[in-house]
Amino acid sequence: MSENKIYIHPAPVRIWHWIHAAGIVALVLTGFQIRYAELLGIMSLADAITLHNYVGFVVIGDYFIWLGYYLGTGKIKIYFPDLRTFVPDAIRQATYYGYGIFKGDPNPHVMTPDNKFNAMQQKAYVGLMFLLLPAQMISGVLLWRVKGFADYVNLLGGIKIIDTIHVILFFFFASFLVAHCYLATLGHTPLAHFKAMFTGYEEHH
Amino acid sequence: MKKMKKLKIPTRSIGVCLLVVFCLWPGLVLALDNAECLDCHGDEGLTRENGSGDNGSASLYVDADKFNHSVHHMNDILCVDCHADISALDYDNDLPHPRELAGVDCAACHEEAAAAFGDSVHGKIKSKGITMTCYACHDYHYVTHLAAASVAERENNFCAKCHNPYQSHEWLPKQAEHFAFVECTVCHAPGVQRHIHLKFFDLVTNTFYKGEEILKILGVGYDEFMPMVDTNKDGIIDKAEFEILELMLRQKNDHATFHAELVAEVEAAAHKVNRGVAEKNCEKCHAADSPYFNSVAIVLTKEDGSVDQHQVDRAVLESYSLRHFYIYAGTRVKLLDKIGIILIGGAVAGVLGHLTIRILTIRLRRARKNTKT
Predict the structure, then answer these.
(1) A171 interaction partners in chain B (CB closer than 8 Å)
(2) Quick check: A99 contacting B, CB < 8 Å?
């Protein structure tokens, strides 16, 4: 490999990422079909629910691969921002995305294996992976067996409350998918980050 | 002769009058009321031989208390109205009526139901030599009002006696939820009318409140319930009125909530269940404009099993006042759709805006790069 290439994404992370990506896309599509059954004709409602359930459990299993890897290797700390520098880092990063990038300024964050995410990514991913995704998984499991988990469903306020949590997070993940795919085009070439997530190597320019 | 004539005329008139009265009132002719029948059949030990019970016998006992709560007794139906081949009791014999009686002909009164049943899969098996009687499902003497029955009661007392739903609905997602909240005939009797029943439910004991129990909590009587709730007096409990009712309920008893079920109208069409015609199109129900939710009612059960039903606006199904009921797509909360549009629309707009500026500033970046090199 050339000197300006750096190995950022180990194989377990790449495998987890692409399973997760395919799963989230499938969950979003089947989620739309389930919520708007009378308006969309991607597939039948019965098939959409069945597929949504299966894929949901794949994503849950995949989450634990991610958690196991990052906890096991101790790399979980890359998700947690340094509170002393977080605010100025985040301002600097936001300024870059909102202004500097158009002028051709260099990205203020330089990716390394131990410092993979910029301040804004850390903020987004720590909430996503430790709060929103678990909440979505738990609400999804409760909706999967409403009758079997009736006591828990009632304890949390009823099926409509659980559904509201699941649906708002569903819309959030659908919008995140749009933003995430776009932000992935902000490398030195539009496909650079996509390529890196297959090869594991990011190129520094 | 004249005297005799004077005596004959009144006698003939009285005789004709009595005949007319007796014809119009069969009970008088028979002079058999239920108490006479229960003199013997109220004995728990009364059996007949050649039955399917222990020692080849069959019980002939009729529980008077249960019978008195039956819908037939409440409608003043006598034993001999159904057991119509008993015209008189001859107490000179050990058995005061014929040993073998004809089968009860329910169709004599329930003509429409009998016709629908005859045209159903259950009626048609007669051609295969299997006769399914009405009382195989409806019981003999203790038929009660069904309007108040929950889905579980309707299923357990009828279809589930013979059918295990889990063995024949492999294609159906969320089986347990469907079997718990949707009555079988909602899908299996396509011609039937459907209703959403909202019943008061105790979350702690997992039991339904009887009408008088919930009215006691609310501090009103049956006749005062609707005037109390329907404040705009339009005859329908709308979303705002339902919210106030739910709030009152929480103030007075925090265990009480609403339990919603999709049930079929108790009507003749419910008997017309046939193979291959069950509704399998999920979107028929799972749609925001589904006709299945046109009729929504709060159901107050009475002691005799009958009900008071109070019409509710279907918009209530989409409200958070009804937190323990949700049907995918069918009763979705519209506010969440607006939040979804804002979130996804915001992301798409942000991406498109950023992309547009990126494209418009390509020359700027190229010029800067060239200057650097």
Answers:
(1) 336, 339-340, 343-344
(2) no
- Across the A:B interface, residue pairs with CB atoms under 8 Å apart total 112
Instruction: Let me know if residue B172 belongs to a domain.
Output: yes
Is the Cβ–Cβ distance between B312 and B296 less than 8 Å? yes
Task: Verify that B307 and B217 share a domain, yes or no.
Answer: yes
**Domain-located, residue B52:** no
Nearest chain A alpha carbon to B350: A179
Show which of B67, B89, B111 is a domain's final residue.
B89
What is this model's ipTM? 0.92
Does residue B261 share a domain with residue B357? Answer: no
Count structural domains, chain A. 1
CATH of the domain at A160: 1.20.950.20
Taking the CA of residue A175 and the nearest CA in chain B, the distance in Å comes to 4
Task: Give me the average pLDDT of each 10-residue run along chain B (373 residues).
Answer: 42 55 48 83 85 71 90 89 86 86 89 93 91 87 85 88 91 91 93 93 89 92 94 95 92 86 92 90 90 93 83 94 90 94 97 96 89 74
Q: Is residue B176 located within the same domain as residue B67? A: no
Range of the domain at A195: 5-203
Partners of residue A147 in chain B, C-beta under 8 Å: 176-177, 180
A117 touches chain B (CB under 8 A): no
The verdict on residue B122 lying in a domain is no
**Between B171, B329, B339, which is nearest A35 by CB?**
B329
pTM of the complete model: 0.83
Range of the domain at B321: 135-332
**Cβ–Cβ gap B340/A176 under 8 Å:** no
Residue A157, chain B, CB below 8 Å: the answer is: yes
Asked whether the beta carbons of residue B326 and residue A160 sit closer than 8 angstroms, the reply is: yes
Q: Are residues B190 and B324 in the same domain?
A: yes
In a domain, B157, yes or no: yes
